[in-house]
Every structure is written in C-alpha cells, then in structure tokens.
Design goal:
The chain is of the alpha+beta class. The chain folds into two domains: 127 residues, Alpha-Beta Plaits (2-Layer Sandwich); 113 residues, 2-Layer Sandwich (Alpha-Beta Plaits). The chain has seven helices and nine strands; from the N terminus they run αβαββααβββαββααβ. α2 runs antiparallel to α4 and α5 crosses α7. The radius of gyration is 19 Å and the shape is globular. About 6% of the residues have low confidence. This is GLPGLI family protein. Keywords: Signal.
C-alpha cells in the first residue's frame, strides 16, 4: 500500500465520517525511471498484487489493478507511464491483517515490505495520486474479468456549467451503459467524482471509466435507440471531456467467489 502523508490521511479520515454507501478509488500515477519499461515494473507490481490480494481476500479492499497507458490526449504525454488503482469500501486504505501478511512473508514482513517499497521507488516512483468517490453509478457484466476485457478508457471531465444539475443524468447514463453490457460493446462502466486533491487548476473533477475488449468496441455501441441517443446527447452537452486516456490492465487481484460483484 502507498504510504500516505499525515495531512492527507487526516483529510481522508475526516471526510470518511460523512461518507455513506460509497466506494472509493485511488488512482496512483507512476513514472518509470530513465531507461526502464513497463516490463521492468512488472516484478514489483506483481508483488504488490500479492500483498493487496491478501487485503481483498479479507474484505478490506475491493480490488487492485495495474494499468499501462497506451494512448492519451494529455499534451504532456510523458507525465506518467502507468497507473495502479485501488478500490476500497471506505475512504481509508486498509491492508491485509498481520496474520495474512505473516502467511505471505513469514517472520520477515517488515524487511520484505521495506525492500518492496525501496524497489518500487527505484523502478517507477509515484508522481501523482488522486482519490475519487464512486456513487451508486456503475454497472459491470456478471462475469466481468480483466483477463477477458483488459482495455480501459478514462474520460476526465468537468461540467460546462458548474451550476448545472448534472447528477440528474447519472441514472440515464447508467441505463444506457447497462444496455451496452448486453451487446458486449462494454463489460463495465463507472462514474466517479474527484475528492482529493480537487482544485480548479486541475481542469477536471469528474471521471467516467469504460471497460471492454478493445478501444474500438468501447467507442462504438452496437445498439442505438432513442433513449441511448438522448443519454449520449445530454452527456455530451453537459460534460466537457478535457482528457481521454486508454489503458491496458496488466495485473489485477480477484475477489473471493462469495463476495458480491462491485
């Protein structure tokens, strides 16, 4: 897990007191050290996958993912190379229990974790981190698995009119996305709101994640009807997509079969 600065941890704790029926997503942006590639980062991230799988197995975490950037509209295209994603049931990240970590590393937990953090910083240090709130505006196929649908398109957005009642569009957009699950042009869709750090200089405050087999299938729904056209038109008129990025999921945790899909 990332080590959070004290001020950020205090902010997260305070905000969590007011949060109900929400999940949270941490986007952790990594910049590869000079001369290294994503392949060089895989051994480190695979060890993080094992560490975070322990937290998922205990219900402390919903999921962890490593996503390699493939395309971006960001003018600063080299700002970061890949993103690790942590989805949690609360605003604070909770890792595996001491029992789970001992099972993973034996009696050398602290030594192994110190070594992992050192290798992490040397391979691909974190250059930016964001915390997003996920309201009840997401839908995924019942059999969703990143191994079958590894492409993720992220639309970073802001409302054209900050005073617009954009939340009223979430249900129609979710309905349209759910219909796309049936034609297999999408396997997942989620809407999020930026919590920290959220300043106007960022240029965006909202996020839509779309998951599918290819970027082309995500961009081209197979079934078009009056309701889908209306939802699409309203969303395009309401939200300005200020950045779009395409990622490929390289590594991920899996949820216990008894857990409800999120």
């Amino acid at each position: 897990m990332p080590r959070l600065p004290l001020t950020l941890a205090l902010c997260l704790f305070t905000l969590s007191l007011f949060a109900q029926n929400r999940t949270y997503t941490y986007l952790i942006y990594h910049k590869l050290s000079p001369g290294l590639t994503v392949q060089d980062a895989l051994p480190v991230e695979r060890e993080w996958r094992a560490v975070n799988q322990a937290a998922v197995d205990e219900g402390n975490m919903i999921g962890w993912y490593m996503m390699a950037k493939q395309m971006t509209s960001n003018p600063n295209s080299t700002e970061y190379d890949y993103v690790t994603v942590i989805v949690t049931p609360t605003m604070n990240i909770k890792g595996g229990s001491p029992v789970a970590m001992t099972k993973l590393y034996g009696d050398s937990v602290q030594t192994r974790m110190d070594n992992l953090n050192k290798r992490d910083r040397a391979t691909a240090p974190v250059v930016k981190m964001e915390v997003w709130e996920n309201p009840d505006a997401y839908t995924f196929s019942p059999d969703f698995t990143p191994s079958a649908t590894p492409v993720v398109v992220l639309n970073y957005m802001k409302p054209y009119d900050p005073k617009a009642a954009w939340a009223d569009l979430l249900d129609p957009m979710k309905t349209w996305a759910t219909s796309r699950l049936k034609d297999n042009s999408l396997s997942g869709w989620a809407f999020s709101r930026l919590i920290l750090p959220n300043g106007s200089e960022k240029g965006y405050s909202l996020l839509i994640a779309q998951v599918g087999t290819t970027a082309t299938s995500i961009a081209n729904p197979l079934v078009i009807n009056t309701e889908s056209i209306k939802a699409y038109t309203q969303s395009r008129q309401t939200f300005d997509v200020v950045r779009q990025e395409v990622f490929r999921i390289m590594e991920f945790t899996t949820r216990p079969k008894t857990a409800a899909n999120k």
